[in-house]
Design a protein that fits this description.
Layout: E1 6-9, E2 12-16, H1 22-35, H2 46-54, E3 60-68, E4 73-85, E5 90-100, H3 109-124, E6 129-131, H4 138-146, H5 162-170
Parallel strand pairs: 5-6
Antiparallel strand pairs: 1-2, 2-3, 3-4, 4-5
Keywords: Acyltransferase, Transferase
GO molecular function: N-acetyltransferase activity
Family: Belongs to the acetyltransferase family.
Length: about 180
């Protein structure tokens, strides 16, 4: 992707994640899971993150906020991947997770990450930038409204996982 690997702002250095960031990103994923009251579901391993973000053909990408590049302190991260709109005929960007550590909130880091991802979309010609947010997360909803994000209330999220996924797959013929 031709989008710059780094950007500076009054809020810190936003840069693409590097392999050495995986441990701290994974720690923040677990902090996010605790905040969202879903800690038991955060079971990803460093090996899985390395493969997803830095394997031979990564389909997942990440930016981090480096609050103090000298100390290597990460204040937050955003993990995203591409989707595709059959209606628009172009890719979109799906934000899987955005997290700013509590000690760093209110300093513009979240908006900085969102702006960086919007720039990726514009630079690459993607048609949209989407994500989910828990309906009780008023702080996040306020930030998203302030940048022009619009809730898509007419849609519901559907998921098949666990045994239901295995059972559904068993209905398929050979691929």
């Amino acid at each position: 992707m031709p989008t710059p690997d780094r950007s500076t702002s009054p809020t810190g250095l936003i840069r693409r994640a590097v392999p050495g960031d995986v441990g701290e990103i994974l720690a923040m994923v677990r902090e996010l899971a605790e905040y969202e009251r879903l800690a038991d579901q955060a079971v990803a391993t460093p090996e899985q993150f390395h493969a997803a973000l830095f394997g031979p053909a990564p389909a997942v990408h990440a930016f981090v906020v480096d609050d103090d590049p000298e100390a290597g302190t990460l204040a937050g991260f955003a993990i995203y991947f591409l989707n595709f709109s059959t209606w628009l005929g172009v890719h979109g960007l799906y934000l899987e997770d955005l997290f700013i550590r509590p000690a760093f909130r209110g300093r513009g880091f979240g908006k900085g990450l969102l702006a960086t991802l919007a720039k990726v979309c514009v630079d690459e010609g993607y048609g949209r930038f989407e994500w989910w947010v828990l309906d009780w997360n008023e702080d996040a909803l306020g930030v998203y409204a302030s940048i022009g994000a619009v809730p898509m209330d007419e849609w519901t999220v559907q998921r098949v996982s666990g045994q239901a996924l295995i059972d559904l797959a068993a209905l398929a013929g050979p691929t």
